[in-house]
Amino acid sequence: MFLVESKSAAIVCMLVSLLFLGTWPAILTLLERRGRLPQHTYLDYSITNFLAAVLIALTFGQIGGSTPSMPNFLTQLTQDTWPCVLMAMGGGLFLSFGNVSIQYAWAFVGLSVAQVVTSSIAVVIGTTLNYFLDDKINKASILFPGVACFLTAVLLGSAVHSSNATDNVEKLRSFHENLKETEKVPEITTDEEAPSAKDIMENVDVDNVCAEEAKKAGTADFIIAVESQRAIKVVGESKVVGMSITLFAGVCFALFSPAFNLATNDQWHFLKEGVPHLVIYTAFFYFSLAFVVTAVFLNVTFLYYPLLNLPKSSLKEYLRDGNGRGWAIAAGLLCGFGNGLQFIGGQAAGYAAADAVQALPLVSTFWGVLFFGEYRRSSKRTYLLLVCMLVMFSVAVALLLASAGQRKTVASKINRLQHQNTKPMENYTHATFDF
């Protein structure tokens, strides 16, 4: 069985995990903006996510021989580890609910802010829990200042969202006023002095949008063009709804890692005496199994979401909807391998330090700005808040990585004892005793 025991190898796993986990949200956002129903995308994504966990278990989990203390994946499937199996599946449930929620949070508050807020909540709660569950192997003097930086990033993320939303409203109002002057749009009857973004979107004729301007990210024409084709209509919707969904997703993300930690290390002593702990790959298999079962159940049972005014769908329509399926499959594979590498690194260096992969908003923000035009042509205030948020987030990630410890696994203890037993006798000092 493949194991990572050194701190440097664990950090490499975390960095690769960071890249993978920061990229798959951008792919799902891309598909939603192109009009593909999120429930169709999520089914493709969750199924391939599970297949990635199976592939990892049958390769890394089967490398080398199986020992009583460290059984390989297939051997452990038949062992009496059900208390920890259920804990691993509980972690999968939390992740599934979090991912179902965040796909709508992306639409309401934007990819960059949603990822920052949920990841920061996950670090503030999840990292604290993991620190105590891991018997404080991480350096508290470095870890908790990093947690404080993540909490600061939450506040900055909310400010960025509010400032950017205000900028977009002003752009849409200017667009409406220009159309009124050319008599291309009817007067909007509203009690407010100025029409809201929702009023404008409900009354604007998409034919009035300039094709050339619609290609320029950050313009009012661009905002209207994107909104007209996306699956989830959110312009002008309540900020409270968007932030509530985002906060709920963040709490779910905060709990899945501690649950996985308990499943693999059994700090609460669920297992009977003599039964080996769940190895990473077995726990990850059950974790992903619960994830995919929950995702399929939610999407098959609720193939439309009244809160978001999504059109009703069916399994037949899902099977026929092949548009963008390849991208959804790629997103599932990236998430599956990203989570697997996060857990492998966490088992070696502590799950509190592994929460540094919550730096995925840095990657997601890059994709959001590069491909989706987020924050283009915004105000100086929005840009300043965005830079402060990303800087604070980067500092927090650096501190979490610096706090990494090294877990003393069974295998490392055995290797240390074997090394001590092979030392030459002259290295020992002989003593005489008088009786």
UniProtKB/TrEMBL annotation:
Keywords: ATP-binding, Membrane, Nucleotide-binding, Transmembrane, Transmembrane helix, Transport
One Pfam family cited in the UniProt record for this chain: Ureide_permease
UniProt keyword Cytoplasm, yes or no: no
InterPro entries, per the entry: UPS_plant (IPR030189), Ureide_permease (IPR009834)
Molecular functions per Gene Ontology: allantoin:proton symporter activity; ATP binding; uracil:monoatomic cation symporter activity
Subcellular location: Membrane
Membrane topology annotation: Multi-pass membrane protein
Primary location class: membrane
Lineage: superkingdom: Eukaryota
GO cellular component, one term: membrane
Transmembrane portions of the chain: 6-30, 42-60, 80-97, 104-129, 141-161, 240-260, 280-305, 326-345, 351-372, 384-405
Similarity annotation: Belongs to the plant ureide permease (TC 2.A.7.19) family.
Protein name, as recorded: Ureide permease 2
Species for this entry: Spinacia oleracea (Spinach)
Upper classification of the organism: Eukaryota, Viridiplantae, Streptophyta, Embryophyta, Tracheophyta
Name of the gene: LOC110793731
